[in-house]
Design brief:
Layout: H1 7-40, H2 43-49, H3 52-75, H4 78-84, H5 91-113, E1 117-118, H6 121-127, H7 133-138, E2 140-143, H8 155-160, E3 174-177, E4 180-183, H9 189-205, H10 207-221, H11 228-242, H12 250-260
Helix pairs in contact: 1-11, 5-10, 9-10, 9-11, 9-12
C-alpha cells in the first residue's frame, strides 16, 4: 500500500489521482450522452430496435463499472467519511479563504523577491525544452540556509474548521510564490522543475483564479496532494524525471488542463 511518507509514493498517488480525475470526466461525458439517449428514446424502443450487440456491450460495461466503483466505495476508510462530514463552508467563508491565500502568496513573493536570484545558465539549459525562454528569464529562485518557510498565519483557523491535513510548509522541498520559487532544501533539477510548473500555472491562470481553484479543490478533497493544481505538477514532474531526454511543453499541458476544465 502507498504511504504519504514515501516521496516516490506521493508522486504515484498524484499520478493516480490525475488519472482518476480524467476517468471521472470521461464518465461524466458518458453519463451526459446516455441522458440524451434517455430523453429522446424510450427503453422499449431501444430494446426492440437498437443494435443488440452494442446494447449488450453497453450494459455489460456499465455493470462492470458500477461493480468496480462500488467495491472501492466499500473500502473508503471511515476517517475519510468523517472528514467529509465536516460542516459545509459557506460561499462567503470560501471567498474569504481565497483572499487569504492570494494575499499570502503575494506577500511571500514580495518578501523573498529581493533575495532571489535568476536561474543560472546550466539550469536554463536543462529546463528550456519544457519551459519558455521568457519564463526562465523571469523566474527567480531562493535556496534557504538555516531556515525554512513557516506555515501560513491562517493555518490555525483552518484547523479549527476541521482541516487537519494541511501540508507542513517547512517539510516541502519548494514553494512557488508566483514567479519566485523558494527551496527549503538544496536545489535539485527535479524540484526546480516542479516549482516551475507552478510558475506556469500562475502565468496561465493568474493569481486570483489560481487561488480560487486551489481553495475550492482543497475544501473538496481535504488533501494537498489531491488538489489538481498540485497533482498535475507531480504528474509532469514524474514524466520529466522518468524520461528527461523527452521534450514537451509544460505550458501546453497546463493550457490543455484549463481547456478541459481539469483544474
Amino acid at each position: 500500500m502507498y504511504s504519504w511518507e514515501n516521496p516516490a509514493d506521493r508522486v504515484s498517488i498524484a499520478q493516480m489521482n490525475s488519472e482518476l480525475q480524467h476517468a471521472h470526466l470521461e464518465l461524466l461525458s458518458a453519463h451526459c450522452a446516455t441522458h440524451q439517449l434517455r430523453l429522446r428514446f424510450s427503453a422499449d424502443n431501444l430494446a426492440h430496435f437498437g443494435q443488440r450487440d452494442i446494447l449488450r456491450k453497453s450494459a455489460q460495461t456499465a455493470a462492470a463499472l458500477s461493480e468496480y466503483y462500488a467495491s472501492i466505495e466499500r473500502e473508503i476508510p471511515s476517517a475519510q467519511a468523517a472528514s467529509e462530514a465536516l460542516t459545509q463552508l459557506t460561499e462567503e467563508r470560501i471567498l474569504e479563504g481565497v483572499e487569504r491565500v492570494s494575499s499570502y502568496l503575494r506577500e511571500q513573493r514580495e518578501h523573498y523577491f529581493h533575495s532571489a536570484a535568476p536561474l543560472n545558465d546550466h539550469q536554463k539549459a536543462v529546463m528550456w525544452p519544457y519551459f519558455s525562454a521568457a519564463l526562465l528569464d523571469r523566474v527567480r529562485i531562493v535556496e534557504l540556509e538555516g531556515s525554512r518557510v513557516p506555515n501560513p498565519p491562517f493555518y490555525e483557523e483552518a484547523k479549527a474548521l476541521g482541516f487537519v491535513n494541511l501540508p507542513e510548509v517547512a517539510h516541502m522541498h519548494s514553494l512557488t510564490f508566483l514567479d519566485v520559487v523558494v527551496f527549503n532544501e538544496k536545489i535539485v533539477e527535479r524540484f526546480l522543475f516542479h516549482g516551475l510548473v507552478h510558475a506556469v500555472q500562475f502565468e496561465v491562470l493568474g493569481l486570483e483564479r489560481y487561488a480560487n481553484l486551489f481553495v475550492r479543490s482543497f475544501v473538496s478533497t481535504k488533501l494537498h496532494f489531491l488538489v489538481p493544481l498540485e497533482s498535475h505538477a507531480f504528474s509532469l514532474e514524474s514524466k520529466f524525471a522518468g524520461a528527461p531526454a523527452s521534450r514537451f511543453s509544460v505550458e501546453d499541458q497546463v493550457r490543455l488542463w484549463v481547456k478541459q476544465g481539469r483544474y
